[in-house]
Amino acid sequence: MKLEILPHLDDPSYLEKLYRNNKLAFKKEFTTLYPGLKGKPLADFWHERLNFETDELNWGNGRELGLVLMASLCAGLLAKLPAIFSLPVEFFYSRNIGFIIFPALAAYFSWRQKLSSVKIALLAIAILIGVLYINLLPNEPQSDTLTLSCIHLIIVLWALLGFVFVGNRTNSIGRRLEYLQYNGDLVVISALICIAGAMMTGITIGLFSLIGLEIGEFYFKNFVIFFLPAVPIFGTFLIQSNPLLVGKVSPVIAKIFSPLVLVMLFIYLIAMVYSGKNPYNDREFLLIFNLLLIGVLAIIFFSVAETSKNTQNRTELWILLLLSIVTITVNCIALSAIVFRIAEWGITPNRAAVLGANLLILINLGLVTRQFLMALSGRATIQGVGHTTARYLPLYAIWALIVTFLFPFLFGFQ
């Protein structure tokens, strides 16, 4: 965005347009440029405007708030479909949980990014294909490919939301990093909303119980299920309307959790050796091991998205480098265990899916680690780490598409 700001420093309307299109990116780039622009009236004005702090929340305009309320209402109604039409609960939620949330978020970002009609139509067709496909798969509860398709379809929908989030911007790499940051911010704000909601739920049920009315089951079935899907939608609205709301919290969380996770992983690997437990002959342990790997990878991605914006703190870089190296060790153990199980007992849908995912993660971590080493040695900037991560993200989406749509046919719906 630097190339867009500098040539238009004397055009207030153009700067205002840039700002409204992407407030977070505008503020970041303008803050970087401002030291060389200090003294220019328009630059000083924007500096004061961007750094003015207020305790009041920005609730957007009426149209945007109406869209959020409509999206939340639709998501709530979708979540209540099993109760409204007496649908099998397990069948519906296992296959359609992603379609309750992601289409509503996609609609919101489509409106914010002003996507073209063609892109909106393609997005709607893609979602419709997903709905029809997953609900027409044979109803075999014991089918591994069905379970894999349901899980990986959520990743596909997450990738589609990322496509909408990037929008029509030419700087897609930067927007992908912002998408990772948005996901981290959304986790933080959603957790806060859920905590507040849990407190309100406990108080409400407790108050009614004092007058002899036990409304717990009724409350959960009719209120919690309806309003829970609105949490990420409303959280997204708060983040987009108030960029600084969690902007100062998320970096702190990344800085705190990165060293803690590093220490935990290191101790865990030592404890695993002494416990005698290993993923080579224990299927459940291998599953938990891979879930741990995915969780740590998410923390690394979020930390990279936060760190690559402006930090030059070598301590943070060293922590992330060591975390990446330890995570590679965990990944190699999991990968060797999967290869061992395939060699001993043959290929299955689960083993094939986990093998592909672990290979992707290993390559990604290797590339990120290389960028960290280059940044620490002065041969590259920290922004290169973020760009490497952003460029690699589509590969996860492609693998999720393969597992979702091809694995049932490749393995005969077993």
From TrEMBL:
Query: Which range is the signal sequence, renumbered to this chain?
Result: none
User: Looking at the keywords, is Transmembrane helix present?
Assistant: yes
**Assigned keywords, A-Z:** Membrane, Transmembrane, Transmembrane helix
TM annotation in the entry: 65-85, 92-111, 117-134, 146-166, 186-211, 223-240, 252-273, 285-305, 317-340, 352-373, 393-413
Protein name listed in UniProt: DUF4153 domain-containing protein
Q: Which organism is it from?
A: Litoribacter ruber
